[in-house]
Amino acid sequence: MAQLVHKAAWIGLGNMGVPMVKNLAENTAEVAAYNRTQNAYGDIGKAVWTDSLSVAVRNADVVFVMVSDGHAVNEVLFAETGVVTYASRGTIVVNMSTIGVDETKEIAGRLAEQGLLFMDAPVSGSVKPAQDGSLVILAGGSQDVFDRVRPSLESMGKDVFHLGGIGSGAAMKLLMNSFLGLLMEAAGECMGIADKAGLTRESFLQVLSKTGMWAPILKLKQPAWEQAEFPAAFALKHMTKDLGLASSFAQEISVSAPALMSAMAMFVAAREEGYGEQDMAAVSEYIKELSKD
């Protein structure tokens, strides 16, 4: 029988990390939460905040990492005062951040050299699903490690998929975000055409909602598109980063992905025009700007 997680360390208290660690702490005997900065973070429930990474990590069965990108993951793990300095041999590191597939495999190898186990487990879903504990979790790693961390993952997600070996979770996450980015870009283009043709984006979305092409994410973003207000549930700058990772992955395995490359270029341009901190759905606003007379 797989050993249960009694003490967990959590690194990363951003928009996603806060609700995720709160849910984790409801089902774990002891959770120590650490953030790289001292910025205000929010309600972490039964988790105990510490400003010391060493305090958080020492004696933890599992260390969960939920930070912004691959650079941040490497920093918290391998810096002079990083996780590898304090974690005991046999500790499991679960990276829930979205990073590249090659990065994931390289990190797993470096941790193995230090006697640490690894699983990649990025998530599909944004802040509301994180709050509700209804994320979709995409795990890659050995069956034994998965069995040990599965109860913890289930406390944060409605569905937990074990997709294969190390890197398979990271790969699937890039596919999920590629599809999402393509959908946002396609919706933005169609709304731009509807506005320009005198049909209005509101009528386009209303008609679309009555067809089989409608999707929950479109319903979620509909108020933002109609009101032209885009508070970030998933920031455009992060989608841009993920589309870049997905494009590189497709090239590495020799898959043609012209639509993905086109969407990435649109998101890059929108970020450069100042939309990076807004929600990813704000790519429609950049497309609208391009359509002005």
What does this molecule look like?
The strands form two sheets. A six-stranded parallel sheet has the order 3-2-1-4-5-6, sandwiched between helices. Strands 7-8-9 form a three-stranded mixed sheet. Helix 8 (168-196) crosses helix 12 (258-275). It folds into two domains: 7-166, Rossmann fold (3-Layer(aba) Sandwich), CATH 3.40.50; 171-290, N-(1-d-carboxylethyl)-l-norvaline Dehydrogenase, domain 2, CATH 1.10.1040. With 293 residues, the chain is α/β, with parallel strands linked by helices. 51% of the residues lie in helices and 13% in strands. It contains 13 helices and nine strands. The model has no long low-confidence stretch (mean pLDDT 95). It starts with 6 loop residues before the first strand and ends with a helix.
Keywords:
six-stranded parallel beta sheet; N-(1-d-carboxylethyl)-l-norvaline Dehydrogenase, domain 2; 293 residues; 9 strands; three-stranded mixed beta sheet; single chain; 13% strand; alpha/beta; Rossmann fold
- The domain tally reads 2
The CATH topology of the largest domain, please? Rossmann fold
Count of separate DSSP helical elements:
13
Q: Looking at the structure, what is the overall shape?
A: elongated
Helix content: 40-55%
Tell me which CATH architecture of the largest domain applies here: 3-Layer(aba) Sandwich
CATH class of the largest domain: Alpha Beta
| Strand percent estimate | 5-15%
- Mean pLDDT across every amino acid position: 95
Alpha-carbon distance between the two ends: 67 Å
The H-level CATH homologous superfamily of the largest domain, spelled out, is NAD(P)-binding Rossmann-like Domain
The number of E-state strands comes to 9
How does the major sheet shape up? 6 strands, parallel
- H/E element order: EHEEHEHHEHEEHEHEHHHHHH
The strand line-up of the biggest sheet is: 3-2-1-4-5-6
